[in-house]
Write a structure and sequence with these properties.
Number of helices: 13
Radius of gyration: 27 Å
Largest sheet: 4 strands, antiparallel
Helix content: 40-55%
Oligomer: single chain
Length: 300
């Protein structure tokens, strides 16, 4: 074929491409993201996976869209026009989803964790017990195509999308369900429909509240503030706790890692807030900060 005889072209580095959060080593942090990578690599689908890692980390992937049973992506290669990548995954049937969701609903702890955005490892076993798989069970469950002229499938463009999908699943495990044919909202609806109906618990009648004062002046009076209104000031041990719970931002395009940038911002905000509020109580954990804050107040 003509493209085998041509010398390899240098890839075009695009601006604004999706950059993998992983700079080295494995892709993904949670078990389901790592399982996706191990499943793909376990199929031994070709020799382009390693180059796909480089493409994923270099921002060559321009866009990814996950729909029911299908992933559509654009990847910049050596030609001016980006390549179109399609990855199709076998969807579960309605009957198969009915069995799985009934089994999930029977385990209240699983439903609670799913509602909280978590994916317990035991969920995978529930799929297996019902003769189906959450992840592609074999290479035949994946149908891939790329508009590039590479004769090998998957090519490095498809492989790059595989690895970026791991980081996408890392933050939103429900995309795995969508890829198998069931959206988050539909999943919760099926879980709710499969839950056993229970009688509402009787609630005690609340005690009457304290009557409001009839004198408006007394109502609007601030009164004496407690001495411990602010409480103890401490620098948080874990910075950017909420963003860390959300996980890596999918399809990140910045030069710096999102979580690292947020941790720096939170740390600066915590120090600035502590300084404004006094800062003396931070002597145990941030002596240098308190010293600097005290000297600044003296100069003022």
């Amino acid at each position: 074929m003509w493209w085998r005889d041509e010398p390899p072209r240098k890839k075009i580095v695009p601006k604004g491409g999706i950059k993998a959060q992983s700079k080295r080593g494995d892709f993904g942090e949670n078990w389901w993201a790592k399982k996706w990578v191990s499943v793909i690599e376990g199929f031994h689908v070709g020799g382009r996976l390693q180059r796909g890692r480089t493409y994923a980390r270099g921002g060559q992937v321009l866009s990814i869209d996950v729909t029911a049973g299908k992933v559509s992506a654009k990847v910049q290669g050596s030609m001016p026009k980006p390549y179109n990548v399609i990855i199709e995954v076998t969807k579960l049937t309605e009957a198969e989803w009915k069995k799985v969701t009934a089994a999930l609903a029977a385990q209240a702890a699983f439903s609670a964790k799913l509602l909280a955005g978590e994916l317990p490892p035991e969920v995978e076993q529930i799929f297996t017990d019902n003769k189906v798989s959450l992840f592609p069970a074999a290479a035949k469950d994946l149908k891939t195509n790329c508009s590039c002229p590479d004769y090998e499938n998957p090519c490095k463009h498809i492989a790059a999308v595989y690895y970026l999908l791991a980081e996408t699943f890392d933050r939103d495990p429900f995309l795995l369900f969508r890829l198998r044919g069931l959206d988050r909202e539909a999943l919760f609806a099926k879980l709710h429909a499969a839950e056993p109906v229970t009688s509402p618990a009787k609630t005690a009648t609340p005690a009457p509240g304290e009557p409001l004062p009839t004198n408006p002046a007394i109502f609007w009076r601030i009164g004496k503030l407690p001495t411990d209104l602010i409480g103890n000031l401490e620098i948080p041990k874990v910075m950017a706790a909420l963003p860390r719970r959300l996980g890596p931002l999918p399809f990140w395009r910045g030069e710096e890692l999102f979580l690292e940038s947020m941790e720096t911002t939170y740390r600066r905000a915590a120090h600035a807030g502590a300084t404004l509020a006094g800062g003396e109580t931070l002597a145990m954990t941030e002596p240098a900060l308190v010293t600097a804050a005290t000297s600044r107040r003296k100069r003022v």
